[in-house]
Amino acid sequence: MNMDIVLHRRKTRRRTTYQERYSAMSANDVVMMTLVQRCWAHAILQQRQARRHLTMCLAMNIDGEDEDVFLAMIQHYLKTKRRVLQFQQLDALLLNIPQDERVPRLVPIARCRSLDMLDVCWCYQYTRFTIAQLRTLHAALNLPPVFHLAHRYRCSSEEGLIVTLAKLATGFTNVKLCDVFGERDDRCISAIYGHTIGALDERSNGVCHGNCLERWVEDFPLFSAAIARKLSLPEYGGHQFNDFRVFGFIDGKIDACNNHPWNWTCDR
Questions:
Q1: Residue 72 above 60 pLDDT?
Q2: What does the H/E/C string look like for the chain?
Q3: Model-wide pTM > 0.90
């Protein structure tokens, strides 16, 4: 029984997961493939035309009357046939993947998934926090130990916090973060980020929503005094305030404030 080995063809379109990077093609490979296949198609048309001419010669009995013309047509047909085979072999050489080249990409090694795995420089570069600050923040948020995500994904709350802070601080896409954290699929990064953002939003309910500043009314003088001290420094302009009532706005803008100098209030 004849068992033919089916060779796989290289993909002309890159996959975002890059699980078969060895079968992807560069831009130069795509241009070369288009040129070779265009020449191959032209050679096939020439072969078909030469075969029709040869069949017509046989039907008109030209082989007996003019042997030189018949031999020239045979030579032309064989030449076009060899050209078709040459372009076919060249296309197979460029695009077929031999068995010894079918080496799948190795599974990436998980890294930067917990606070104990973080490097000091990497931590500050990708999250804008130190490791000690991340530990304090994680403890203060009181997140559950394990996040149960969609599609049966699970991750620790430390991993969720690190991934979320890295995405917010760097603005990287989920595909880019796959290389950063050693993840195979960007769907897992998306699930971790979405679930962690939801958990943080639930934790901040009552702090960032509704009448959230009411709990800090007693500390308003401390806040205004701290900002006044900072603005009085030479590097911040050396401003002097006798009575500093407006101490700051989280969103960086004032929607509506009354003009009374002693009772400035904000609607937002």
A1: yes
A2: CCCCCCCEECCCCCCCCCCCHHHCCCHHHHHHHHHHHHHHHHHHHHHHHHHHHHHHHHHCCHHHHCHHHHHHHHHHHHHHHHHHHHHHHHHHHHHEECHHHCCCCCCCCCCCCCHHHCCHHHHHHHHCCCHHHHHHHHHHHCCCCEEECHHHCEEEHHHHHHHHHHHHHHCCCHHHHHHHHCCCCHHHHHHHHHHHHHHHHHHCCCCCCCCHHHHHHHHHHHHHHHHHHHHCCHHHCCCCCCCCCCCCCCCCCCCCCCCCCCCCCCCC
A3: no
